[in-house]
Amino acid sequence: MTDLPRRRFLKLSAIATWQALAGAACASRPPSAEASGPRERRVAPASALTLFLCGDVMTGRGIDQALPHPSAPGIHERHLRSAADYVRLAEAANGPIQRPLGFSDLWGAAREEWRRVEPDVRIVNLETSVTTSEDWQPKGINYRMHPANVACLTVAGIDCCALANNHVLDWGPAGLLETLDTLRAAKLATAGAGRDAAQARAPAILELPGKGRVIVFSFGTTSSGIPSDWAATAERPGVDLLPDLSEATVRSVARRVREVKRVGDVVVASIHWGANWGYRIPPEQRSFAHGLVDTAGVDVVHGHSSHHAKGIEVRRGRPILYGCGDFISDYEGLSGNDEYRDDLVLMYFPSLDPGSGRLVRFRLTPLRMRRFQLVRPSQKEFGWLSDTLARECAKLGTSVERVDDDALELRWA
């Protein structure tokens, strides 16, 4: 997410009005079927490799304040001076929040879905610094989670944290180094940030007995709000910042992939790019994503930064997620851009053939962030998200269909 001002705060009277409207919106209606007609339902074989992906996981600021070991609450924003104010805003909007919030309680209904799907690997974009550093950067918004709260990631079974984003250095180089040390001590793999350029550029390599390896590269772009001087160098810690989205950069990524990819490996390119709002996919993003698949040997493009889900493309059997939306955030009680419903989030479960890397099934599970926990959406909310995703996927040659009572599946030619 970028650090540009983007919301206005709700007054209590406006909150009451919003709650009344939200309550009226809970009348059920069946979500739409897929946008472009029926297609053959795909069934993932037992040998398939299933990933869990999601949008931004922002366990700092208000979320951190609700966890058992909150950081010092001071923040440096235009409107607020305490991270605890974000807890109070969320409670004003949706009711009391259990405090301290249990590490596993934060994930709510996601835990049930993980038990149901049993993904082989869980990859998130961790968009916060994990530190006690006080070296805050004057950038408008600063996220940090206390290192003692790292259990909220391990209890969720997260395997890999992509770190090339615009909040991992919010509390300076010391904050980044402590983040890396904390995640390593918790046995969480990382990609996209490091003590120097070599470490920041190194992919995470996840061994899966019987299913090969998952290799995760994490890239950032300035279009997501990453300052250019956050790029790691030989002498400076930082992130793996792409210079641009040109063909030359595709070729550079391709050389890096070739150095590590073996037969049977699945390569994920996790990219923090683009603006927070809007469904339009810039031509340069689409061209770059195509290049990653066609030239660089990438099997999954995991795009994030947008605060809401965007359309999904499948190119040569490889899924391209242009924007996964938020997943964990402290945005309850904030207003602005409400038409995007950023409180409605998605769990992404692409299943791949580990031999070829081709997509064989793609399950999506809608959830909602409420009282700092992930819950099941209402039928109306499910329908809205399904319709919106169907509309945006149709522009990219894919569609979605409801399966079970609480999940969608992607369809592609």
Keyword list:
413 residues, alpha/beta, six-stranded mixed sheet, 10 helices, 23 strands, disordered N terminus
CATH top level label: Alpha Beta
The overall pLDDT, averaged over residues, is 91
End-to-end CA span: 32 Å
Give the name of the CATH architecture. 4-Layer Sandwich
The shape, in one word, is globular
Largest sheet: 11 strands, mixed
Strand content: 15-25%
- For this structure, the CATH topology is Purple Acid Phosphatase, chain A, domain 2
Radius of gyration: 20 Å
- Helical segment count: 10
Q: Estimate the helix proportion, in percent.
A: 10-25%
Oligomer: single chain
Q: How many structural domains in the coordinates? A: 1
Q: By CATH's scheme, which homologous superfamily applies?
A: Metallo-dependent phosphatases
What is the total tally of β strands?
23
Structural class of the helix and strand makeup? alpha/beta
**Low-confidence regions:** 2-40
Provide structural commentary:
By secondary structure, this protein is an alpha/beta fold. It has one domain (42-412): Purple Acid Phosphatase, chain A, domain 2 (4-Layer Sandwich), CATH 3.60.21.10. 25% of the residues lie in helices and 25% in strands. It is built from 10 helices and 23 strands. The strands form 5 sheets. Strands 2, 3, 4, 7, 8, 17, 19, 20, 21, 22 and 23 form an 11-stranded mixed beta sheet that branches. It starts with 7 loop residues before the first strand and ends with a strand.
